[in-house]
Design a protein that fits this description.
The protein is mainly beta. The chain has two domains: about 160 residues, Jelly Rolls (Sandwich), CATH 2.60.120; about 130 residues, Jelly Rolls. It is built from one helix and 25 strands.
């Protein structure tokens, strides 16, 4: 076994998106090779309706997949193909934009006015950029959860983990998307296939992630897989942790426990031409998408 080094820890930054939604962006519109096949990750969390009710009105997508995971409140969505629906707490929508779709998402708070969810963008390889759009709407009750003897809970949204397989399938990047809760003080190790790029996003509590190198501030030392490793200072809410190459990570939960997303996928390793919600491989393809938007041919007829 080889421990994945923690190559970067950073806070999500405040950002305004859509028609004025206040959110925090962990990554996006930077070097797309860093977390290939993932392009962008937003945490939209607000206690004040005026910060989110204007939502994300009609906008185009092409060449990517958008993954929306709602923790509280609801998100009403609709598209140019006539699909409509509402995502509630615990629900997931995996939308493959493919050749092109016009889409809108309008968040609504819970009874207390609170709204919380995440959106992840995954890239599509060139061979699938122009496939027909596809939705996978998954209700919270369809998402398997595994509870370990030490109280660790893992919701398996995508991929296979601890004998359970998530309900979302047929995704290009062969991703694994896990929602993990670890009780206070518990240390846990998770396997991740070596070929995957991986990151964690902490959104409740605190944790330290083991690292093969010694940082300037060492919280504690542990024996992991027969090797002495150092564990970094505790990271807290809205923290992105990006991992290097290896096949496992070790997490030490803080005094109040921790909840985080652990997401990984197979790199696509192709050129990226990116403009807003449209991601192609070449500038020529991107320019064609812009022309399609202008002349009304962005949405391809179903075959």
């Amino acid at each position: 076994m080889s421990l994945r080094p923690t190559i970067e820890t950073r806070k999500a930054m405040p950002h305004i998106e859509g028609a004025g939604v206040k959110l925090h962006r962990a990554f996006g519109f930077q070097d797309p090779s860093e977390l290939d096949p993932f392009l962008l990750f937003d945490d939209f969390r607000n206690d004040h309706p005026e910060d989110y009710l204007r939502g994300f009105p009609w906008h185009p997508h092409r060449g990517i997949e958008t993954i929306t995971y709602v923790l509280s409140g609801t998100v009403e969505h609709g598209d140019s193909l006539g699909n409509t629906g509402t995502l509630g707490a615990g629900d997931v929508q995996w939308m493959t934009a493919g050749s092109g779709i016009m889409h809108q998402e309008m968040p609504q708070g819970n009874a207390a006015g609170q709204m919380h969810g995440f959106q992840l963008w995954g890239n599509l390889p060139a061979s699938q950029k122009m496939t027909a759009p596809r939705y996978q709407d998954v209700a919270s009750g369809e998402i398997p959860e595994v509870i370990d003897d030490d109280g660790t809970r893992v919701k398996v949204i995508v991929g296979s983990f601890w004998g359970k397989t998530g309900p979302v399938d047929g995704i290009a990047a062969d991703p694994q998307y896990l929602d993990i809760q670890i009780p206070a003080g518990v240390r846990k190790t998770f396997r991740i296939d070596t070929y995957r790029r991986a990151f964690a996003y902490i959104f409740e509590g605190q944790a330290a992630f083991a690292d093969a190198s010694a940082p300037s501030g060492v919280l504690l030392e542990k024996e992991v897989a027969g090797e002495e490793v150092n564990i970094r200072d505790l990271s807290g809410d809205r923290t992105l942790v990006r991992f290097g190459t290896g096949d496992e990570i070790t997490v030490q939960a803080g005094p109040e426990g921790v909840r985080f997303l652990l997401i990984s996928g197979a790199p696509i390793a192709e050129p990226v031409a990116w403009h807003g919600p449209i991601v192609m491989n070449t500038q020529a393809e991107l320019q064609q998408a812009m022309r399609d938007l202008r002349n009304g041919t962005f949405i391809r007829p179903a075959h």
